[in-house]
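HUMAN: I'm a chemist; might I ask for a sequence paired with its structure tokens?

ASSISTANT:
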Amino acid sequence: MANTVEKFAFAAFDILKSERIAGPRYSYWKSVFQTFFRRKTAIFWLVLLLSLTIMSFIQPLLSGYDPGSAPNINKPTTWYQKPSIEHLFGTDDRGNDLFDVVWAGTTRTSLSIAFIAAAINIAIGIMIGAVWGYSKRIDPILLAVYNILSNVPYILRSMMLMYIFGRGFWQMVLAMTITGWLGIAFFIRTQVMIIRDREYNLASRCLGTPLKRMVTRNILPYMVSVIATLVYQEIPGLINTETVLSYLGIGLPSTYPSLGRMIDVYWSFVDTYPHMILFPGIVMGLVTISFYVVGQLFADASDPRTHR
């Protein structure tokens, strides 16, 4: 009997330990970044995008380039120089180093407009789209507004608004954002309508969960990959819009160098001095492609089905 007592003993019961899950802990954002950085292509394009963005904001501060400066008539030999060690991108028709002009105009100005306008469009589009897709009362009203405005191409809407507001940095941002959020809101509305009638949302609705909590806790967290795709598609699209508007002469004034302004001014030299168009196009092409690739790879990493 004594040997039996020594071999067997009652185990203590701990209610807290009994509720713990023996499996490994799962962190969504940790898994997202692990999946993203696991791809070498993602690291390459992300480093390239960050390098171009940082360069576009730092280099103009160091170069001292003034877009409103007069041509250097005392040294006409500095005009139209081809790429060399001294001038990596060559010089333009005013004797300016194209390396300075490209980073000050093509990237800093265009990226600044795109970042500001994209932040406004994405923020407004997500908030209105989430409520739009969940609330059946405002759906007919916003749907009618969308159907009317969507019949007019976005670039034409921006052109008309630029004629009304005039040329300028903030005028262009305003023209891009007054109706720019509408397409994003409609897309979010469609995604929300797919999610809103799932079982857990129906249960929350029966329990009296407020609309704000339903949208922010039950719906938007499931759309991270969709929102990431929107962000990285919106920025290149806005860069292209700024380029077209400035090229048509209704965008930025001459005091704001940008890709569109450079194409407008340098296009007449495309046959004789092609480097004046080539290098701005290459830099902006790399920026645009980097945004698309990084955005798509991050959207894929945001999908929980890709996590290990």
Notes: The radius of gyration is 27 Å.
